[in-house]
Amino acid sequence: MAVAGCTKCIKYMLFFFNFVFWLAGGVILGVALWLRHDSQTSNLLILQFEGQQAPGTFYISVYILIAVGAVMMLVGFLGCYGAIQESQCLLGTFFFFLVILFACEVAAAIWGFMNRDTISKELINFYDSAYIKAVDVSGSPSKDAAIKVLDVFHNTLDCCGKGDDTALFRQVVGTLCPRKSQGDFLKSQSCHDKLIELFSEKLHLIGLAALVVAVIMIFEMIFTMVLCCGIRNSPGAY
């Protein structure tokens, strides 16, 4: 059977949106893999201190993004094929997967909004626990390990300290804060601010990608329903 008129236009529009959806899945998969292997986040999240691994909540969202990107590419291909073949079965299956993906995306967006500050707060607490040990003038057994952990933070984020200019910080600043070269001043930008900035940028990128995908999915669901109705009502349907 072959659709005609406006329904035929809808068919090719659906194919186009599915192709864009498939491409968006590839882009999201690529961005997720980049976020997973980004040197800044990787250097921080592999750290261990006193038997504790740095909080990996950020990686949970990245792994979800990888799975979503892969599923989007599969579903996008299914939608393209179903549109060209004018198959109600394939389009119905495609619509079902779209609804599931859309519901998961809404749920993930709500969870992400409610926990948007959790990632940076967890790493700030991890940084502070090492910082307390590193500035301990009594000579804590874990002081050397703490200084090594802070060194990774300071060199990765180009920062030093918690943003407080206390007498104790000024006393240890020469030990904790790295220099770019022999003549440069010590770096004293707050690592708290740098951590918030780092993960805010990455979460905004994830949020923007999710918003674009949600808009495409809404159009696809509408076009899929219209095309299915057009196929069902076409003269050759039986």
Automatic annotation (TrEMBL):
Disulfide bonds join 159-191, 160-177. Gene3D superfamilies: Tetraspanin. The chain crosses the membrane at residues 12-35, 56-84, 90-113, 203-227. It is found in: Membrane. SUPFAM superfamilies: Tetraspanin. It is a multi-pass membrane protein. Keywords: Disulfide bond, Membrane, Transmembrane, Transmembrane helix. It holds the Pfam family Tetraspanin. InterPro entries: Tetraspanin/Peripherin, Tetraspanin_animals, Tetraspanin_CS, Tetraspanin_EC2_sf. One of its GO terms (cellular component) is plasma membrane. PANTHER family: TETRASPANIN. Belongs to the tetraspanin (TM4SF) family. This is Tetraspanin. It comes from Scophthalmus maximus. The gene is LOC118315271.
